[in-house]
Amino acid sequence: MNMVSELNFVPIIANVAIFFTIISFLSGLEICVNVWKKRSTNDISCVPLLAGFISTTLWLRYSLYVNDIFMMVCNVVGATCFTSYVMGLNRKLCFAITTLVTVVFITKKSENPSYYSGLCASLFGVLFTLSPLASIVDVFKNRSTAKLPFYIILSSFVVTLLWFIYGMLINDTFVKVPNALSSVISGCQLLLFLIFPNTSMKKGKN
């Protein structure tokens, strides 16, 4: 593929990635609905929401440094969605904000803020993909994926694969490497649904 073709392909992949990413942000509603139904977060992991809040905010910061309009638009929407999700988590929200402020302060004071901002965004992006595994002990203990957020994991797989392709096209290491890792991780998580079926979904069908 020549340079001209690649450049023409970039906005297409970017817009498709943005579309699916915004849909994936809405998948966080699955956790919020479960919390609302049970009136408690005791047996529901809110880690994906907290990780998403920190991750999208850091990616927004990085996109401003590298002046990437596609990532800016995507993460403005993402940061807004996840902020609304975690507003009711109180103490957990305070923890997320404290972590975020600390990371932003450290990267801002560094000699190369864009590099460290990209590095932190990459790390938290991978952590966001790993966050559903906060319930992994229960999955193996109960041999059920009932506590895993299926739609978040599925959307993560699709989205990270698209952003990996985008990262390859613009040749941005901070975009392609973490998204390559994340797509593999979320793919492995999807396999858990084949190994340990969601018993609650089966009961619902019956």
Automatic annotation (TrEMBL):
<dbReference type="GO" id="GO:0005886">
    <property type="term" value="C:plasma membrane"/>
</dbReference>
<feature type="transmembrane region" description="Helical">
    <location>
        <begin position="115"/>
        <end position="136"/>
    </location>
</feature>
<keyword id="KW-0762">Sugar transport</keyword>
<keyword id="KW-1003">Cell membrane</keyword>
<keyword id="KW-0813">Transport</keyword>
<dbReference type="GO" id="GO:0000139">
    <property type="term" value="C:Golgi membrane"/>
</dbReference>
<feature type="transmembrane region" description="Helical">
    <location>
        <begin position="69"/>
        <end position="86"/>
    </location>
</feature>
<feature type="transmembrane region" description="Helical">
    <location>
        <begin position="12"/>
        <end position="32"/>
    </location>
</feature>
<dbReference type="InterPro" id="IPR047664">
    <property type="entry name" value="SWEET"/>
</dbReference>
<keyword id="KW-0812">Transmembrane</keyword>
<protein>
    <recommendedName>
        <fullName>Sugar transporter SWEET1</fullName>
    </recommendedName>
</protein>
<keyword id="KW-0472">Membrane</keyword>
<feature type="transmembrane region" description="Helical">
    <location>
        <begin position="178"/>
        <end position="196"/>
    </location>
</feature>
<keyword id="KW-0333">Golgi apparatus</keyword>
<feature type="transmembrane region" description="Helical">
    <location>
        <begin position="44"/>
        <end position="63"/>
    </location>
</feature>
<dbReference type="InterPro" id="IPR004316">
    <property type="entry name" value="SWEET_rpt"/>
</dbReference>
<comment type="similarity">
    <text>Belongs to the SWEET sugar transporter family.</text>
</comment>
<keyword id="KW-1133">Transmembrane helix</keyword>
<feature type="transmembrane region" description="Helical">
    <location>
        <begin position="148"/>
        <end position="166"/>
    </location>
</feature>
<keyword id="KW-0677">Repeat</keyword>
<dbReference type="GO" id="GO:0051119">
    <property type="term" value="F:sugar transmembrane transporter activity"/>
</dbReference>
<dbReference type="Pfam" id="PF03083">
    <property type="entry name" value="MtN3_slv"/>
</dbReference>
